[in-house]
């Protein structure tokens, strides 16, 4: 008996909570033991580097201990558990994306470039692929399930960028595979992915700099804060991770000069706690037991879902701006 006294329902709930906490602590220990601690280290580094600037150049008048901070910190602390899960999903997504095919087609062109131009092409190509992965994660409802966790943050600051579902982070796998197909080394592509991830963390900082001369050249906090704005005028905009040129090319660039983003978050009803945010996007999906018992029905359902998903990707890719309201 986990909780003496009380009804059996309360005892059951308390037991299940304790079991969940023990399981989480075990996974955390295993993850940390096997070296998946980079996320926590990154959290400490970003705190030290960014918080002083947030104090000196504050954008929104919010305290360090603001609503939602506990959930964001929980995402940081859970990194040793979430990172290996994300890695497994990334391998599957990367393999199924067939992004290496266009990469192979580009390989002769990339191979003919001199060293500096090859690096520039690698950055541009990676960011182009990441632009589309990000855009589809907004405009394809199944992908939005996972990405909406990131957009559920109603306050942006040094730690908001850590609020990412591991399956959402795995969408960087196709850009990774594309560049491998094009002939870039895993070390180069890994470095690009790390740079994009680190820059992404800084883009959420609660700093008031507009950095106007750079605004159309590189991603800035102002650019990404507009991406997070829960403002109909800002929905479906600013997807680039490093180079806003892709938003300008594909018609999704939006950084108004006369006003600034005020309200963040999403109308999608994302749970506020870590466990809820990790499990909620999976709701409605068949359970593993059902899949094992019904392989034919599973294959049929998967084929139907894949066909629908590819249609939505095609629809998203061939339109300048998404024509429907927030999906879900
Ligand atoms: Zn987004
Ligand atoms: Zn963000």
In sequence order, what are the helices and strands, one letter per element? HHHHHHHHHHHHHHH
Overall average pLDDT: 85
Helix segment count? 15
Distance from N terminus to C terminus (CA atoms, Å) equals: 41 Å
Largest sheet: none
Number of strands: 0
Rg over C-alpha atoms, rounded to the nearest angstrom: 21 Å
Overview of this structure, please?
The chain has 15 helices and no strands. The two termini are 41 Å apart. The model is unreliable at 3-7 and 323-328 (pLDDT under 50). With 328 residues, it is mainly α. One zinc ion (ZN) is lined by residues 134, 138, 147, 151, 227. The site of one zinc ion has 5 residues, from helix 11.
What is the structure about, briefly put?
The protein has 328 residues and is an all-alpha fold. The protein contains 15 helices and no strands.
Q: Which SSEs are present, and which pair or pack?
A:
Blueprint: H1 8-33, H2 38-56, H3 69-77, H4 79-97, H5 100-111, H6 115-139, H7 141-151, H8 166-169, H9 173-181, H10 186-202, H11 221-228, H12 245-250, H13 274-279, H14 288-293, H15 295-317
This protein binds zinc ion (2 copies).
One zinc ion is lined by residues 134, 138, 147, 151, 227.
What are its keywords?
328 residues; mainly alpha; 15 helices; 61% helix; 0% strand; globular; disordered N terminus; disordered C terminus; binds zinc ion
